[in-house]
Amino acid sequence: MIKVTNLRKKFKDLVVLDGIDIEVNRGEVVAIIGPSGSGKSTLLRCLNLLETPDDGVIQIGEATLNAKSYSRKEAHLLRQQTAMVFQNYNLFKNKTALQNITESLIVTKKMKAAEAKKIGEALLEQVGLASKADSYPITLSGGQQQRIGIARALAVNPHAILLDEPTSALDPELVSEVLQVIKGIAERQTTMVIVTHEMAFAREVADKVIFMADGHIVEQGTPEQLFENTQNARTKRFLQQIG
Ligand SMILES: Nc1ncnc2c1ncn2[C@@H]1O[C@H](COP(=O)(O)OP(=O)(O)OP(=O)(O)O)[C@@H](O)[C@H]1O
Ligand SMILES: [Mg+2]
């Protein structure tokens, strides 16, 4: 489903991704953990070309892109394979909850408004916000906004969903409602890559956990392997610090 080979990215002289290899199978949930500045967001953003990778090959669903040279068509196809959920929701402020979800269906996928509305309403139901269809983001709580963000990502039926710290901007009491929704999606065999600081969540929901530091994958494995049978000293230190 996702295969990343030798992904490299520099900002000026700063090496942020130093040859990353990742494989994610269909339906798998992969959690990426690691200290601030280790390159987690940059990695996710390279997968949908929000950042331009310098080198490496990215295969997702039907798309293969070689960072050294690719066409606009290949870039477009790669972007279509995933949908992103952002830390700060990034909703359209001048659109209702429902419109936020249906926008890409109508504009990009050229779907009829009535059909898009049906899909949007079903997704609102799935994230527990059926009653908020006509509400504007500013009138919703952070947890509700993020659930709209998740519904919007699901709407385009992507091969994989990329979530970058989806709960870290939320007040503590709103975290669990969003994690609950993500867990529900994971149980429907949606392929997901999630950057998170929620270790208990990663342990419970992820099939695989990747620990990144300084642009490298230091250690990866099942939650049991990574959390209970930690091999690498750097991983151990990180888990102790946040634990
Ligand atoms: N657009 C940019 N221009 C220059 N440097 C950048 C840019 N984006 C990120 N960086 C740098 O790249 C490094 C990795 O950043 P990144 O945001 O990927 O880390 P992260 O692991 O997501 O950290 P955090 O846990 O704080 O979100 C950092 O040193 C950051 O300052
Ligand atoms: Mg980040």
Overview of the molecule:
With 243 residues, the chain is α/β, with parallel strands linked by helices. It is 39% helix and 25% strand. Strand 9 and strand 10 form a beta hairpin. Helix 3 packs across helix 4, helix 3 packs parallel to helix 5 and helix 4 packs across helix 5. It starts with a strand and ends with a helix. The model has no long low-confidence stretch (mean pLDDT 97). Adenosine-5'-triphosphate binds next to strand 2 and helix 1.
Write the SSE topology.
Layout: E1 2-11, E2 14-24, E3 29-33, H1 40-47, E4 55-60, E5 63-66, H2 72-80, E6 82-85, H3 97-107, H4 113-126, H5 142-155, E7 160-164, H6 172-187, E8 192-195, H7 199-205, E9 208-213, E10 216-221, H8 223-228, H9 233-242
Parallel strand pairs: 3-8, 3-9, 6-7, 7-8
Antiparallel strand pairs: 1-2, 1-4, 4-5, 9-10
Bound molecules: adenosine-5'-triphosphate (ATP) and magnesium ion (MG).
Could you list some keywords that capture this structure?
single chain; 243 residues; alpha/beta; four-stranded antiparallel β-sheet; 9 helices; 25% strand; globular; binds adenosine-5'-triphosphate; binds magnesium ion
